[in-house]
Design brief:
The complex is a heterodimer of chains A (about 110) and B (about 110).
Chain A lengths: L3 E4 L2 E5 L4 E7 L6 E7 L5 E8 L4 E4 L2 E6 L4 E6 L8 E9 L2 E4 L3 E6 L1
Chain B lengths: L4 E3 L2 E4 L5 E6 L6 E7 L6 E7 L2 E4 L8 E4 L6 E5 L8 E8 L6 E2 L3 E5 L1
The chains are: A mainly beta (about 110), B mainly beta (about 110).
Chain lengths: ~110, ~110
């Protein structure tokens, strides 16, 4: 059974810092991995999707990496801004059964 | 293009009552998923439709939950009778030809 863990559970940084969010999973036989952002009271917004054959994906200030063999993914956020404050969720897709981590709650202080 | 919409945004019912949640997918998305997040836990998969057919309903917690997708368009998730532990946020997500799932804003269900 796939287990997804996100560390840390919460993170507070000053504006402008670069930061890394971590996601680990127990079953490396994944189809893809998706990073989402959730703002309070809102739905999930897809940030990046990495196929199992890929090592990383980039979108603007975001870079997600995937090391399938070690069961790890990271989300790197460059030059963080207060608007980046949200909960970031990692979701691993095994044959259309998407398993979520509990999320990392990020606060970027002005 | 409109995103995934869910109705209602919030529902408060008493234990034993029935509630029906609705999800309208992005037009043309054949794949529709239901998820829920109960207090303090991670989001969990409930089931997956491909058009009107249930592809995978392994995450449905028990037979008090019934999902339908008549005509392969919108979907409903009915809880009957509702129990206290059913409280949480119910998300719908849809997917077209790519692998990206697009989520709706969720329905917050409170069972008293």
């Amino acid at each position: 059974k796939q287990e997804v863990t996100q560390i840390p559970a919460a993170l507070s940084v000053p504006e402008g810092e670069n930061l890394v969010l971590n996601c680990s999973f127990t079953d490396s036989a994944i189809y893809n991995l998706q990073w989402f952002r959730q703002d309070p009271g809102k739905g999930l917004t897809s940030l990046l999707l990495i196929q199992s054959s890929q090592r990383e994906q980039t979108s603007g200030r975001l870079n997600a990496s995937l090391d399938k063999s070690s069961g790890r993914s990271t989300l790197y956020i460059a030059a963080s801004q207060p608007g980046d404050s949200a909960t970031y969720l990692c979701a691993v897709n095994n044959n259309n059964d998407m398993r979520f981590g509990a999320g990392t709650r990020l606060t970027v202080k002005p | 293009e409109a995103g995934v919409t869910q109705f209602p945004s919030h529902s408060v019912i008493e234990k034993g009552q029935t509630v029906t949640l609705r999800c309208d997918p992005i037009s043309g998305h054949d794949n529709l998923y239901w998820y829920r997040r109960v207090m303090g836990k991670e989001i969990k998969f409930l089931l997956h439709f491909v058009k009107e057919s249930k592809q995978d309903e392994s995450g449905m917690p028990n037979n008090r939950f019934l999902a339908e997708r008549t005509g392969g368009t919108y979907s409903t998730l009915k809880v009957q009778p509702a129990e206290l532990e059913d409280s949480g946020v119910y998300f719908c997500a849809t997917r077209g030809s790519t692998d990206t799932q697009y989520f709706g804003p969720g329905t917050r269900l409170t069972v008293l």
